[in-house]
Design goal:
alpha+beta, 21 helices, elongated, single chain, Beta-lactamase, five-stranded antiparallel β-sheet
Length: 604
């Protein structure tokens, strides 16, 4: 007979074991439901939602008057969809409804059709809708006619002022633009991104198995802060006139580009600045597809050999050291042998003027005369090179001016302490060859020559919100007495030489400046050995104008212009650099309401 298989001890053990397991499960359940509730809820939320950042309303940009809007932000709507959530039939119906409601044709209709034909979880079908169009779509969404469709708020940057040339917006190189991600690129938009852009909105977006959807009713965790408005130093009226003058010169001179900047030499404020070719910042995408180089501002971001406008730097060094005075006689021999006869420099016309005053060396732009002065700056070539280089550096060359625009470059000047100069290097440097500078560097250096000797920082922003910007860096780099002499020397240039006098002076105003014409080196010429471009030159003029003293400095550059008259020492175009200066200077006097002197005279 078999014995019983049950036993009370065994039953008791099983009950205890089951009870212990139950308690463990109960405690564990309590741990998850109570102790870990918040963490689990957060994890669950992460599975169904995601935090996204959206650009806030961007600050408006005004001109110096505070009344002309140069850049503003519009609130628009874009239509997004989740075609992967729909059947093929639903996609087709949604596409047809959107096309009909928005009355789309051509590329617009194709974009909607192509977007809804995909299996993506998030597609943008239309953007930039105004409130009227958005209202129609919103009504269809509410009525269930557009399943899988969501409306999102969109900020659109616009540049409302037309530029001075076809297919351009005003001051495009100064302003830059805002890209599709809402970030500023180039110019003021990039340089003042943090100020203009503000802080982003933090929004909770719904996360589904097929993507992320940010709707108009999505919860906002942080509203962020809108961008701050900027007031520029740019005068919209003068900017427009300047751009029109640049276009006319570009056409007449068959130039690659034409640039100019108008600057207050005492404050550093830029009243106008531009180049042609330019672009329409409202259509930056189309421009980028064809030529991204259009976005680069030649005034601050492209260097070139300045030529004889650099003779004024040699004048600074010569007058400071006492090597010359304006009346000192210099032997202009037409040609000067250097480095033991191995090298030479020549005047453009290959002719000698004999002994002429240093003032006339500058006025008639004599290379040999400038080279002789440079060689006298020190007892040795090395010492003279050091003096000339120090003058360049003190007046801002080889380093950024600090202008508050994105993309400024330093230029290129060879430091003789790092690479020893020969006599030919010193001579070439005396008349602006072998160096590479920007127009803004020239305008800044000439401002110091004209304003009493103070190197100011050029700038284009006058105020951030209601806060005026006044603490711009300044440095005394020349004596007031030397500045007065340099001003007189520049006036001598445009009054002494008939060729300049007839086409540079503005009746009733005090004018001065210096021209420059430079050959252009082509490294690809002669099978890669390099050579000078044939009958193509860079033309420059940097000068001042004012009622009875310098009140504005204007730098002009005609890049790769083609002369219509080309003889030895005479390279003339339909619009010369000093003529372009006069046109812009005349516009500036009128626009900025600087009255002429009582007596119609061009000199003090």
């Amino acid at each position: 007979m078999l014995g019983r298989t049950d036993s009370r001890p065994r039953h008791f053990f099983v009950l205890v074991l089951l009870g212990a397991v139950g308690l463990l499960i109960l405690f564990r359940l309590g741990y998850w439901q109570i102790t870990q509730h918040e963490r689990l809820a957060a994890l669950a939320e992460q599975q169904t939602s995601v935090r996204t950042e959206q650009p806030n309303r961007r600050g408006t940009i005004y001109d110096r008057t505070g009344t002309v809007v140069l850049a503003s932000t519009l609130v628009r709507t874009r239509i997004v969809g989740a075609p992967s959530q729909l059947t093929a039939e639903q996609r087709a119906r949604v596409a047809a409804r959107l096309i009909a409601t928005l009355k789309l044709t051509g590329d617009g209709a194709k974009r909607v059709t192509d977007a809804m034909a995909t299996a993506k979880g998030y597609v943008v079908m239309a953007s930039g809708l105004d409130e009227s169009a958005a209202g129609l779509i919103r009504k269809d969404v509410a009525g269930g006619l557009l399943p899988g469709v969501t409306l999102e708020r969109q900020y659109v940057r616009t540049y409302p002022q037309a530029g001075g040339a076809p297919n351009t917006s005003l001051a495009a190189h100064v302003l830059g633009f805002v890209n599709s991600d809402g970030h500023g690129q180039y110019g003021v938009e990039q340089r003042y991104e943090e100020v203009l852009g503000g802080s982003p909105r933090i929004v909770v977006a719904d996360r589904t198995a097929v993507g992320v959807s940010v709707g108009e009713s999505s919860p906002v965790l942080d509203a962020g802060s809108p961008g701050v408005d900027l007031s520029l130093t740019i005068d919209a009226g003068l900017q427009l006139a300047l751009e029109q003058e640049l276009l006319a010169a570009w056409v007449a001179d068959r130039a690659t580009s034409v640039s100019a900047v108008v600057m207050d030499p005492f404050s550093g404020a830029i009243y106008a600045e531009g180049s042609y070719p330019s672009y329409d910042a409202n259509r930056y995408g189309a421009v980028a597809a064809k030529d991204q180089g259009r976005f680069v501002d030649p005034i601050i971001s492209q260097v070139y050999e300045p030529g004889s406008v650099f003779k004024m730097l040699t004048a600074v060094a010569g007058l400071e050291t006492g090597v010359v005075k304006p009346t000192t006689k210099i032997n202009d021999s037409g040609t000067l042998r250097l480095d033991g006869g191995a090298t030479k420099v020549s005047d453009a016309d290959l002719k000698s003027k004999g002994f002429i005053t240093f003032a006339d060396v500058i006025a008639f732009s004599r290379n040999v005369g400038a080279a002789r002065v440079a060689l006298r700056l020190g007892p040795t070539t090395a010492k003279a090179a050091s003096v000339l280089y120090e003058t360049w550096h003190r007046l801002g060359f080889g380093q950024p001016t600090g202008i508050d625009l994105a993309g400024e470059v330093s230029g290129i000047v060879n430091d003789p302490s790092a690479n020893q100069w020969r006599q030919i290097d010193l001579a070439n440097g005396s008349f602006g060859q072998g160096v590479a500078v920007t127009p803004i560097q020239l305008a800044t250096a000439y401002s110091a020559m004209a304003n009493g000797g103070t190197l100011v920082q050029p700038h284009v922003v006058e105020a951030i919100g209601s806060r005026a910007l006044t603490a711009w860096p300044r440095a005394q780099v020349l004596t007031p007495a030397l500045s007065d002499t340099l001003v007189g020397l520049m006036n001598h240039v445009v009054t002494r030489v008939p060729f300049y006098r007839d086409r540079t002076l503005v009746p009733g105003y005090y004018v001065g400046g210096k021209t420059g014409t430079a050959q252009i080196w082509d490294p690809k010429a002669s099978g890669g050995q390099g050579g000078w471009k044939d009958n193509i030159f860079n033309y420059s003029f940097v000068g001042f104008i004012g009622r009875d003293h310098p009140q504005l400095v204007i730098a002009v550059q005609i890049h790769q212009g083609t002369p219509t008259i080309a003889t030895q020492g005479h390279l003339e175009m339909p619009v010369m650099s000093f003529e372009l200066f006069r046109r812009i200077a005349t516009d500036a006097m009128s626009t900025l309401e600087i009255p002429a002197h009582d007596v119609a005279t061009a000199s003090r």
